[in-house]
Write a structure and sequence with these properties.
The structure holds two protein chains of two kinds.
Chain A: E1 9-12, H1 16-28, E2 33-37, H2 45-49, E3 52-55, H3 61-65, H4 68-77, E4 80-84, H5 94-102, E5 106-107, H6 112-119, H7 121-130, E6 138-140, H8 148-155, E7 159-163, E8 173-175, H9 181-196, E9 201-205, E10 211-219, E11 225-237, E12 240-246, H10 253-269, E13 274-283, E14 286-293, H11 300-307, H12 311-319, E15 336-343, E16 345-346, E17 352-353, E18 356-357, E19 360-362, E20 369-373, E21 380-381, E22 388-396, H13 399-411, E23 414-416, H14 422-429, H15 432-435, H16 443-446, H17 448-452, H18 458-471, H19 473-480, H20 484-487
Helix pairs in contact in A: 5-6, 13-14
Chain B: E1 3-7, E2 10-19, E3 22-27, E4 31-39, E5 45-49, E6 52-61, E7 64-69, E8 72-79, H1 81-86, E9 94-98, E10 103-108, E11 115-116, E12 121-127, E13 130-135, E14 140-145, E15 152-153, E16 158-164
The chains are: A alpha+beta, B mainly beta.
Chain lengths: ~500, ~170
């Protein structure tokens, strides 16, 4: 095992399941942990688990977690040596990364320059193309705004029009017929302006029935970069991932090798340090660079399950200035892992977020099952944050064993008091197309029945009514008021 | 008189009665049979319906019963006849917002004489450790506030009286 880290206290600038997950590794490594929290998270597991919890405030709960100055002050108040940003919030904010370093702290992530490079889709794409890695045929508006529409037409339909500053699918438009290009450009520009304050666009070849393949990479300060194989995240609703797995059932060994080596090559060219993910779009044997996420990814546990590595520990190691403790040939992937994201949302009502209070909570257990959760019994589920509650991760020797385990794990998951997407996850895992490994990113939109679900079975309805009747006081009282003998004569009180 | 429950927006009427061995459920949609809830020494609960039994996990939360059964979670709502009635203006043209369950008033959100629209939150209460918004069931003017912040009340207690608009 590695010796003590010269990091001192590590402050986690995040919340929910990822804060818990990072703190657990800090504990495993014998490091002290600190976490910042907004009042609404005071009862959350991360706050209970951390050695130090520092309250931060803001106009809204989300804005407190985006307040870099307050977070750095919190870190200094507990004499922290490093800040781990998790994912989301400030994790890909170069200004914050610079401020952390200016305050004499270590930012657990890549250099601010690399965050900036990869944060700008156009610069990132040009960088990747310049270094000889595949990017989709495209037209970039700012190359020459006057000819943008002509150049976009020259790429040909189907086209994907996106805001340059975008992310998370916001403002993206698919153009199947070039006659609709002008409208799509106007809409995408408006959304880009609204969401990102930046109306610049680019258009690229849209891959039909595209699959989302991403590769985990890890780099140190000595120029060593390894890949930890791919993850497939094609099960998406509105460009948001729901189920992720590794290895991808879409790739041949030959393509797998090429895509993983391309990812490592891109990271190496960028002088990448820390954990990162290179995302590709894949279809018909071809893959194109999509973007690079310069942080830990929500779905990183599937990679941990198949490689046996702890990505947060590796992040901390390279942040502390150590070389990667292994080379590419030492990284082996074994078996198959699947992650399903449990969301507080109603798939049948167009994925509307749901709220409530966790009244009962039982997580599945057993061989090959890992649950990364940020909630505890009694906790209120509000709509203040992203609706992800927990991640159910399973590992099996084969893909079909992993699917079977994932199904069982979700059947055994009990969360009462707030509606979740659990039944929806279960339907996806049991879907023929998913089982056959044929899901692309538009699959759920093409199969709305999976989100809707079937009407309640008559027998289940009876069971529910029987239970509710037995548990409802006035119903029970009314029954008990009439002795069995009289009751047997019929409903005579009416 | 039947009891009314709601599952996923669908209303069901039923009657529960005593029978020699326990309880018998009668559904208005046309089914009846013996039902029972059995708990073993380990605290595991099984629901028996017409001879078939299945493990269940449940939580009762006011008028809601949250159930995990057969790998899925469901919520069944009991439609309290009093609450149901209180949603309808009485003969004097008043509409009273009543407590759906016993609890404590966290905050009254309106004042006497205020005009409110249907759906407006008139008070926030806490019951069974849960915050619940009490909403006006129709448009009206706040006629009387029966409770103060911090005051506790019983189920069906009158919280706010609205007079009907124009009456």
């Amino acid at each position: 095992m590695i010796g003590p880290f010269p990091l001192g206290v590590v402050l986690v600038a995040n919340r929910g399941e990822i804060a818990v997950r990072i703190i657990r590794t800090l504990q495993k490594l014998g490091l002290q942990s600190a976490v910042v929290y907004h009042e609404v998270d005071a009862q959350s597991p991360a706050v209970a688990l951390a050695d130090h919890a520092i309250r931060i405030s803001g106009r809204t709960p989300v804005s407190s977690y985006l307040d870099g100055d307050q977070i750095i002050a919190a870190a200094l108040s507990v004499a922290a040596g490093a800040i781990h940003p998790g994912y989301g919030f400030l994790s890909e904010n170069a200004v914050f990364a610079r401020a952390v370093e200016a305050a004499g702290l270590i930012f657990v992530g890549p250099s601010a320059d690399v965050i900036e490079l990869m944060g700008d889709k156009i610069r990132a794409r040009n960088f990747v193309a310049r270094n000889g890695f595949p990017v989709a045929p495209s037209a970039i508006e700012e190359d020459d705004p006057d000819t943008f529409l002509d150049r976009a037409r020259a790429v040909g339909a189907p086209l994907l029009v996106k805001p340059s500053a975008g992310g998370g699918g916001k403002g993206m438009r698919i153009v199947c017929d070039l006659a609709g290009l002008d409208d799509a450009v106007t809409q995408a520009r408006g959304e880009g302006q609204r969401y990102f304050g930046d109306g610049r666009l680019y258009a690229e070849r849209f891959v039909e029935r595209p699959r989302h393949i991403e590769v985990q990479v890890l780099g140190d300060s000595f120029g060593n970069v390894v890949h930890l194989f791919e993850r497939e995240c094609s099960v998406q609703r509105r460009f948001q991932k729901i189920i992720e797995e590794t290895p991808s059932p879409a790739l041949s060994d030959d393509v797998r090798k090429k895509i993983c080596e391309a990812a490592a090559g891109i990271a190496r060219a960028a002088g990448y340090r820390n954990a990162g993910t290179v995302e590709f779009i894949y279809g018909r044997g071809e893959f194109y660079f999509l973007e690079m996420n310069t942080r830990l990814q929500v779905e990183h546990p599937v990679t941990e399950m198949t490689t046996g590595l702890d990505l947060v520990a590796e992040q901390l190691g390279v942040s502390a200035g150590r070389p990667l403790p292994f080379g590419q040939d030492d990284v082996q992937s074994s078996g198959h892992a699947i992650e399903a994201r449990l969301y507080a949302e109603a798939p049948a009502r167009d994925f509307a977020p749901t709220t409530g209070k966790v009244l009962a909570l039982e997580y599945p257990q057993g061989d090959g099952v890992r649950v990364d959760s940020g909630i505890a019994q009694g906790q209120a589920i509000t709509s203040a944050f992203d609706p992800m509650l927990a991640k159910i991760v399973v590992h099996g020797a084969t893909r079909s064993e992993a699917i079977a385990r994932a199904c069982r794990a979700i059947d055994n998951l009990v969360l009462l008091g707030c509606e979740t997407n659990a039944a929806f996850l279960r339907r996806i895992l049991g879907d023929e197309g998913f089982e056959a490994g044929e899901v692309h990113t538009g699959y759920l939109d093409e199969h709305p029945d999976i989100a809707r679900g079937a009407a309640l079975d008559e027998n289940v309805e009876r069971q529910l009514l029987a239970l509710a009747a037995l548990l409802t006081r006035p119903v029970r009282d009314a029954a008990d008021a009439v002795p069995a003998l009289h009751a047997s004569l019929g409903n005579w009180r009416n | 008189m039947h009891h009314t429950f709601n599952i996923d927006g669908k209303t069901h009427a039923l009657w529960l009665s005593r029978s020699s061995g326990g309880y018998r459920l009668e559904l208005a949609e046309g089914w009846s049979g013996p039902v029972a809830l059995v708990e073993n020494h380990k605290g595991d609960v099984r629901l028996m319906v017409d001879g078939c039994d299945e493990p269940v996990v449940y939580v009762v939360d006011g008028d809601l019963v949250h159930v995990h059964l057969g790998g899925h979670s469901h919520t069944v709502r009991y439609i309290d006849p009093l609450v149901e009635l209180s949603g309808v203006a009485d003969s004097a043209g008043y509409n009273i917002a009543r407590a759906p369950m016993p609890g404590v008033v966290l905050s009254v959100r309106v004042s006497v004489g205020e005009q409110v629209a249907a759906g407006t939150v008139v008070a926030i209460i806490e019951s069974m450790k849960l915050e619940t918004s009490i909403r006006a069931s129709q448009d009206g003017i706040v006629e009387k506030i029966h409770v103060r912040d911090g005051e506790s009340f019983d189920r069906d207690a009158a919280l706010i009286t609205l007079s009907q608009e124009g009456s």
